[in-house]
């Protein structure tokens, strides 16, 4: 038998619905989360000063939990800026331009390359790394800029970011909210990410090919009024000689390949894997900066790091308050507010799950559909990340009711949230790829809509059988 639900539990439920409601309305959820934290704290402790302190403590707890993720993304972005500034990225990607002879080869080559690079650099920096070199090549091969943007979106912001197997930022957030080990969520997500990726990219390619053949899609379809992207992004840098660029272009993939091998051999996951990638990125950043900027290397290193940290905290700024709220649902409660849960309670989410199971016997089908819908709604803010804690939290709640499938439901919520909000459907989240390809973000979102919806439907059905 579970603990009897108290005011604490009902406040948590009410604020989950409020957060979802605000996301649907495309309004910021920070204020709602802070009020929710305060009300839960004052209900649990009865102390005004302790409740006010809990708001700050919840932020500290959330930042502490997410710090390694924020840092590694900041460092990787800083490193990617050095690659762009020195022109090393041009050399790294140029061999692949020889493969691009037809629109089909352009779509799949750019997509697969984007996916691989995004695993290590995250999609936004990867778009910048690839755009300048491969966009003109793809257009010459007959793939319109809109098709290039779709390929970068679906493979990078879709497949790579929704799985996030190397940096592990997404599974860390959802696993923490669901009270599961990161490795469990990663393992459960592999078949779902594969199904979603294959269905969506094949569907998008089919529509792309059909519209190219019929003439509905041309080289100028969806182009925005901004200047040609290649003029804006092309590196004119003479900081390194051609030989040095080639050396670094070989060294960087080799170092990351060694990292992946080390992760496999030494069984490194979660924080250990993140630390290895982060340390390697710092090492690469230092090597490139000192080699390219010579005397100014010391100052430039700090400058690149500052740019990276600005990006990291800008991305995670909206995530911290919402993560702080959802950490209260599980182990974070006692660390943020104190040991003041009702007697016999195993955490707010666990209690709610047990209560839900006793009232409504939920099925695998209901659980899977609900997590896809919740994940998609949380993605409507265009972040993809700010709401995945909610998906993890609700997955834990439903898994307690169903009696199984916690990791699969968590992975499903994560995938739907990131595919919708991470940069494939929400126009303001599409801006990096749209700007680099010089296309209209709204047109790009329209092209992605049907493939992503079909992919989510098929993935949800597959999840029902896996649970």
TrEMBL record:
Keyword Transmembrane helix included in the entry's annotation: yes
Classification of source organism: Bacteria, Bacillati, Bacillota, Bacilli, Bacillales
Positions of transmembrane segments: 6-25, 32-52, 58-78, 99-120, 126-143, 188-208, 247-267, 273-292, 304-328, 388-409, 416-436, 448-466
Keywords annotated in UniProt: Membrane, Transmembrane, Transmembrane helix
Name the record gives this protein: Transporter
Tagged with keyword Membrane: yes
């Amino acid at each position: 038998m579970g603990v009897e639900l108290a005011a604490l539990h009902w406040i948590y439920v009410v604020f989950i619905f409020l957060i979802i409601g605000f996301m649907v309305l495309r309004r910021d959820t920070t204020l709602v989360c802070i009020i929710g934290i305060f009300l839960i704290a004052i209900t649990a402790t009865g102390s005004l000063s302790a409740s006010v302190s809990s708001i700050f403590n919840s932020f500290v707890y959330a930042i502490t939990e997410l710090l390694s993720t924020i840092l590694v993304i900041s460092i990787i972005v800083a490193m990617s800026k050095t690659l762009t500034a020195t022109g090393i990225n041009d050399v790294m990607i140029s061999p692949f331009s020889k493969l691009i002879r037809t629109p089909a080869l352009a779509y799949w080559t750019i997509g697969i390359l984007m996916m691989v690079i995004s695993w290590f650099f995250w999609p936004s920096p990867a778009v910048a790394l690839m755009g300048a070199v491969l966009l003109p090549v793809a257009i010459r091969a007959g793939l319109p800029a809109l098709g290039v943007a779709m390929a970068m979106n679906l493979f990078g912001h879709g497949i790579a970011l929704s799985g996030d197997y190397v940096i592990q930022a997404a599974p860390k957030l959802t696993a923490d909210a669901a009270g599961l080990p990161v490795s469990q969520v990663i393992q459960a997500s592999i078949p779902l990410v594969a199904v979603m990726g294959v269905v969506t990219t094949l569907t998008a390619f089919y529509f792309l090919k059909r519209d190219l053949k019929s003439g509905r899609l041309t080289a100028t379809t969806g182009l925005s009024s901004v200047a040609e992207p290649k003029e804006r992004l092309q590196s004119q840098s003479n900081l390194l000689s051609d030989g040095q660029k080639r050396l670094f272009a070989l060294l960087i993939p080799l170092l990351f390949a060694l990292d992946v091998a080390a992760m496999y051999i030494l069984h490194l996951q979660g924080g250990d894997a993140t630390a290895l990638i982060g340390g390697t990125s710092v090492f690469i950043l230092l090597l490139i900066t000192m080699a390219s900027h010579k005397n100014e290397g010391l100052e430039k290193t700090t400058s690149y790091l500052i740019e990276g940290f600005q990006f990291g905290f800008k991305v995670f700024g909206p995530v911290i308050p919402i993560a702080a709220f959802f950490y209260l649902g599980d182990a974070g409660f006692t660390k943020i507010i104190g040991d003041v849960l009702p007697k016999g309670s195993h955490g707010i989410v666990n209690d709610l799950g047990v209560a839900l199971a006793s009232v409504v016997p939920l099925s695998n089908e209901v659980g899977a559909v609900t997590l896809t819908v919740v994940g998609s709604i949380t993605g409507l803010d265009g972040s993809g990340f700010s709401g995945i804690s909610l998906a993890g939290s609700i997955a834990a709640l439903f898994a307690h009711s169903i009696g199984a499938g916690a990791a699969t439901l968590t992975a499903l919520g994560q995938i739907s949230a990131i595919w919708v909000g991470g940069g494939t459907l929400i126009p303001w989240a599409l801006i990096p790829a749209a700007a680099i390809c010089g296309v209209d973000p709204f047109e790009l979102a329209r092209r992605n809509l049907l493939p992503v919806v079909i992919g989510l439907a098929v993935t949800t059905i597959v999840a029902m059988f896996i649970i």
